[in-house]
Design a protein that fits this description.
Strand content: 5-15%
Mean pLDDT: 97
Number of domains: 2
Bound molecules: adenosine monophosphate, magnesium ion
Structural class: alpha+beta
Shape: globular
Distance between the termini: 34 Å
Order of helices and strands: EEHHEEEEEEHEEHHHEEHHHHHHHHHH
Radius of gyration: 23 Å
Length: 478
């Protein structure tokens, strides 16, 4: 399809007007393409050649409105660091239309009704981080929003310093957040609340459409899928950093990439967000915050679903989380099926890695070729005794594993990525991009798409994080 053949629809605009503001993007000056995602273009059936045209640049810059476009920003509320904010909304993201199930959104495209004093812009560094990371999560098999392209502009905004701006064209099957429901419940707009629930069911849970207790069943699925998402984040060492309820997807996708990070050394107390003084959103706290956020959603749904039954569903969250996390970790350890002691084996592994300050990704990848020869693993930790003790347990467990070593290795190499995009790697791409060189963005993009491949040309990113870059924090300002 050529860009001029695009026919947008706007299903969200069928909701009551309180749910959104119709608003046009404000173009940036002299934009240029930084990177485009040809895989995603193929999914949307847009010809790859179109991505490198002036027309495409104009689409990202809000200067070209395809047929059917009727752009808008979405209204929502949310709990930020535990405190309720009664109106947030898309302060710098503008929805430009939907292609089938994909809803396209420009992030950083100017002010809206919900900008709350902000400038509606996004800076280059945070846009590169979002662009690369959504693709990386997808490559790891973790539910996420996606991105089609990123453009930059010499037009500047002030953050910690004057910085160049950028726009990411993001896509998702749903942009509805827990906080979207909270908005209507808080303002006692129950007609809108119900309309939103119907919309979300049609969009994300269509198999529930004709069920009488569908709001309850929708909540049940959200609880289950959120538990699954948290298990996936924990298993891969991903710290989101800002798990406010407005950043929690009703479709259980990883959404709104801010000061996120992957673990360097395994550390449950790691906090990637510089402004998170008490570690509310620390790596180890994420499953608990998932539960807290689901409780906020439960309260938001209580005007339209029976509270007692919502509570019962909510109370099952941790059981599901632990079951999912153990299953994923069991697979990462190459265990064909789980046995009773495996939960304990996983817990002891966490303690060992933490005590020895071992790079999590590197350890799991090295373990994926473990055949009894320990030196490559022992080398990763500060000292040997705890690692040897855990490997003794692992050796014992492998005796009853019902697959052979070769099969275990094959499976583990498909389950434990060789590469995750750590802060220092993305920073390298950002520094190069600031100097006008987008080749590092492209290199990380390729790794992001295939993190389980060897990529010998990028071997320098496969090791432990260099000491000077370890366990850094990131600023929230973006
Ligand atoms: P976040 O934590 O980045 O997802 O953002 C929280 C809220 O602040 C959302 O409502 C954003 O739309 C809004 N916001 C963040 N940055 C800006 C900005 N530069 N201009 C306007 N609104 C913003
Ligand atoms: Mg957000």
């Amino acid at each position: 399809m050529k860009l001029d053949q695009i026919q947008f629809t706007n299903p969200y605009l069928s909701l009551p007007p309180l749910c959104y503001q119709r608003i046009m993007p404000t173009p940036l000056k002299t934009p240029h393409l930084i990177h485009a995602n040809e895989t995603m273009a193929q999914v949307l059936e847009i010809d790859a050649g179109e991505l490198y045209t002036e027309r495409f640049l104009a689409l990202l810059n809000g200067e070209f409105q395809p047929e059917g476009s009727d752009s808008f920003a979405m209204c929502y509320a949310g709990h930020q660091f535990g405190f309720f904010v009664e109106r947030l909304g898309d302060g710098r993201a503008i929805n430009i239309g939907s292609l089938g199930k994909w809803h396209l959104q420009l992030k950083g495209s100017g002010r809206t009704l919900y900008s709350r004093g902000g400038d509606g812009r996004a800076v280059l560094r945070s846009s590169i981080r979002e662009y690369l990371m959504s693709e990386a999560m997808y490559g790891l098999g973790i539910p996420t929003t996606r991105a089609l392209a990123i453009i930059g502009s010499p037009q500047q905004v002030y953050r910690e310093d004057w910085e160049n701006t950028a726009v990411v064209l993001r896509l998702s099957h749903s942009w509805v957040r827990f906080g979207t429901f909270e908005y209507f419940t808080h303002h006692r707009k129950f007609k809108e609340l119900e309309a939103l629930a119907e919309y979300v069911i049609a969009e994300s849970y269509p198999h529930l459409a004709d069920k009488e207790d569908r709001y309850l069943l929708m909540y049940e699925e959200i609880v289950r899928n959120t538990a699954q998402l948290m298990a996936q984040w924990q298993s891969v060492g991903f710290n989101h950093g800002v798990m406010n309820t407005d950043n929690m997807s009703i479709a259980s996708l990883t959404i709104d990439y801010g000061p996120y990070a992957f673990l360097d050394d395994f550390d449950r107390d790691y906090i990637c967000n510089h402004t998170d003084g008490f570690g509310r959103y620390s790596f180890g706290n994420q499953p608990r915050i998932g539960e807290w956020n689901l409780e906020a959603l439960m309260l938001a749904l209580s005007p339209i679903a029976p509270a007692e039954r919502l509570k019962v569903i909510h109370s099952r969250y941790f059981g599901i989380f632990h079951e999912r996390y153990t299953a994923i970790m069991g697979a990462k350890l190459g265990l064909n099926e789980l046995t009773e002691g495996d939960y304990d084996l996983i817990g002891k592994l966490q303690n060992t890695l933490e005590e020895l300050k071992v790079d999590y990704t590197l350890f799991m990848r090295t373990l994926s070729s473990y055949d009894g020869e320990r030196s490559s693993l022992l080398r990763l930790g500060l000292y040997h005794k705890p690692m040897n003790e855990w490997l003794d347990l692992y050796d014992d467990r492998l005796l009853t594993n019902s697959i052979d070593t070769t099969e275990r290795h094959t499976r583990m190499l498909r389950t434990n990525p060789k590469y995750v995009l750590k802060i220092y790697m993305i920073q390298e791409a950002i520094d190069a991009a600031k100097a006008g060189d987008f080749t590092v963005v492209d290199a990380l993009f390729r790794i992001a798409q295939n993190p389980y491949e060897e990529h010998p040309e990028y071997e320098r990113w496969a090791g432990a994080t260099p000491e000077e870059y370890k366990n850094k924090k990131l600023s929230c300002s973006s």
